[in-house]
Amino acid sequence: MKTRHRFQNVHPHTPHTLGGLLRWKLGLAKEDATVPVAAAPESSDHINSAPPPVTSSLERDRVRVTWIGHSTFLVQHQGLNILTDPIFGNCQPFWLGGIRRAKPPIPKIDNLPAIHHVLISHSHYDHLDLPSLRALGSRVEFCVPTGLSKWFAERKLGLCHELGWWETFNLTDSLTLYCLPAQHGSRRQLFDRDRTLWCGWMLKSATKSIYFAGDTGYSTTFCEIGEKFGGVDLAMIPIGAYRPRWLMQPVHLSPEEAVRAHVDLGSRLSVACHWGTFQMADEPLDEPPVLLRHELSRCHIEAKRFRVLGIGESIEI
To answer: pLDDT tens digits for 261-273?
Structure first.
């Protein structure tokens, strides 16, 4: 939804301001946090001890998803290799000093199979990384939310398809891409807040529905998506960068909210992302999976229904 020159969420909230960010960075609005580590069961996430390499053959109606780190996934389905929000180096908001990567990507960008499409969820530097996009080459087709195609054109990055919420684009005759609402925002510079749209993506074939949430807070939109698609076969859901809650809650899921999103979507299998790669918020890098396992146990949901992958690990459905 757009008002005048800015987009806004379906469920509006008070926007983040520079004053709020400064309060956070200066430690003027701390919050106490308790982590129920003792209550968390041992992980039983890993089903495949030796996942197939990303270059191995894959039956056409199957899906292989490989977590490369943060919100970057390699999705392989219907003969296509698709990347989500590729970032293979450090986060590059130079005006904030940059954020170093805690763990290297697996596979590295030079070891990827030929990429056909890249899905971008929004303009934040940890999701729209110019060095990674340039390294992918000019043959890649990009799918972006409304307003971002100009940025791609100015940098001569290749063919770009721009979609608004609930619009569709056929990647092939048998694979459709849906642009879906997310509860977030956009910013690339100091004064361009919400000038471009943000989104999640759904890949839909005759046999599979694959949902990438992008970056998002919790809202009833997850219920709407679940109802529209009759559930989801595989969902990639963020679980990190949630503290302090007074600042992050409107735009980033906590692990507890990620479980609610999993249920709302009717997801048959979910995979965690947006954690463990960049220190972007106040929680420790390794805390999100602990809280996720605790919440799954509390809700009597099997851990194998919401997987925590290692970087470079693949799953197939």
So the answer is: 999 999 999 999 9
